[in-house]
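YM 10:42: Methyltransferase domain-containing protein sequence, as discussed on the call
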Amino acid sequence: MDEITAYYHRDREHDRLTRGLGLIEFARTIDVLERLLPGAPATVLDIGGGTGVYARECLRRGHRVHLLDAMPVHIERVRADPSLAALASVTLGDARALPYPDGLADTALVMGPLYHLPDPHDRAATLAEAARTVRPGGLVAATAIPRAGAICGDFKHGLDEEDYSRAIRERAYTTGSYLNPEDRPGSFTTAYFHHPAELEAELRAAGLQDVALYALEGPANLLANPALEISDPVRRSGLMTALRLVERDPALMGISAHILGVGWTEGR
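YM 10:58: structure's back
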């Protein structure tokens, strides 16, 4: 956990979704959530909310938002950000033991914690807690990184550090465990990568119903210049339409940089 804390204390998360492939990740996450979130005003828990990127979007849409994150540097940024002043609460806390009462929210977003919980019991606890804090019939949405993500990333950026990166991506694909033992820049920190079917099974094990998976970046994960494609209006329209078309295709799910898994608590 120390290396994960050190990684996020470099304070890069606050602008990660404003450049490169992050632009597509953000646009596609909003695209999918807009179709799934209840109408405003709804109560949303942003669990592992980072520096408030998605909380801010929920506030803009008229929702009441509680944000929780495990990283002090993220909480400091959130509390200092005037665009997040309307948050109902801001909490430094653990996604595995939420400080919220049963059924508080209409929706729980778990947009990052699953990446950093290699123990399946911890992931199960996180999803169970999210489901507990959502009302009957409420939505739980959780992101995961597919196991092929490390392969796609290496292929896209080149194999210049093959002596180092090959073992990382092979371990990630075969076991789900992503390790960057030398903490090299350009590589991720300690993480867990899911097989898509594994994420679906974990959501069902948490008692969620009507579980569905959405590839966020999908084949756009392989674009050489994602910023160019999404900044031009004509290219963006074609890109977003294509990604919507294939977002539920199981044959393409694993090449996406991120998957959004969703399900509803009993009573929908």
